[in-house]
Amino acid sequence: MQKVLIVEDEKAISGVLHSILSDELTNYEVLVAEDGLEAYKLIEKDDFALVISDIKMPKLSGTELLKQALQLKPDTTFVMISGHADIDTAVNSLRDGAYDFISKPIDINRLITSVRNALDRKNLVQTTKVLQKENTQLKKKVNKKYQMIGTSEALSKIQNMIEKVAATDARVLITGPNGAGKELVAHSIHAQSERSRGPMIEVNCAAIPSELIESELFGHVKGSFTGAIKDKQGKFELANGGTIFLDEIGDMSLVAQAKVLRALQESRVSPVGSDKEIKVDVRVVAATNKNLQKEIEDGKFREDLYHRLSVIEIYVPPLDARKEDIPLLVEHFAQIIADEQGNAVRKFDDKAIKALQNFSWTGNIRELRNVVERLIILGGNPVTAEDVAAFVRK
């Protein structure tokens, strides 16, 4: 239970205040200190949601209590009580960090209002701090999830390219096989860019039916087609001020490609069923596992869109091309899985790592992650080469 401290040397006043506030603040424990020195000792030992302090007191004045307590615990909230002769002092106490002051004789309604406002403000500040802390922790988790792990020459080249590209607004086309880490590259570009404070919106073009892709990207208005029961913002509009990641862009229909091309050329989108144009400020990062040059030759991909998207092209090689990164990747995945499951980190012995390096990873990093999780669940501690042989089929 949170606590409220009354600091008042006149027992008649402190008794009345204690009685009234105990009735009003049923979720708080109300304590009384007879002078500033006693109050300071209590504040040293405990945290108080609110301190209501008289200014003129023996041993330690309310003004000195305010200054010393805020040095000790800066988040403490004070409401000062002052006689008419102490108004200037009370006003100065606001400059020193008090939330409010109440003049004597005390208006009980005024006091209760001030106390409730002070506690509401305190709770709001605490809630905000908790949310900020949770947000920071979430960002750390997100950053860890999309961290690029390895020391290979191939990965170093990609990281150097990302560092140069991220500082610009240039469009980027990321190519490479499935599971190689194209999504990680896209997130790293966004995280290191000036747009990192804005949203990053992901669109898996292969997972959206061709008849819905236009609505998904540009939004629609109510009644524009069967099932459009209300207006909907598109991904481009949601990504305004940030980055849109068009994954598997090679699977997008030619009709949708034409719409995307127009959006890139004009920085404007039109929701389905609307004549209204919406200006958008979006950086586009796209990815594909297909050979777009061949797709262009086969008439399946627009050449003009390809040139718009591939201002910078980053190729992500398969895991088999950088097997020297496997030990660090295994350690990284083992830590993530331990954090997710709330368990201690499982170790892999050197022979187990060597066995994993000897495999051909057709599913790339995504496959390796799944294998690490399987070995942690089914293998011993540490995971051995025998575990690899028993539980990994290659």
UniProtKB/TrEMBL annotation:
The modification 4-aspartylphosphate is found at D54. Residues 3-119 form the Response regulatory domain. PROSITE patterns: RESPONSE_REGULATORY, SIGMA54_INTERACT_2, SIGMA54_INTERACT_4. One of its GO terms (biological process) is phosphorelay signal transduction system. The keyword Ribosomal protein does not apply. Residues 148-377 form the Sigma-54 factor interaction domain. Pfam families: AAA_lid_14, Response_reg, Sigma54_activat. The keyword Acyltransferase does not apply. It comes from the Bacteria. GO terms for molecular function: ATP binding. InterPro entries: AAA+_ATPase, AAA_lid_NorR, CheY-like_superfamily, P-loop_NTPase, Sig_transdc_resp-reg_receiver, Sigma_54_int, Sigma_54_int_dom_ATP-bd_2. Keywords: ATP-binding, Nucleotide-binding, Phosphoprotein. This is AAA domain family protein. It comes from Cloacibacterium normanense.
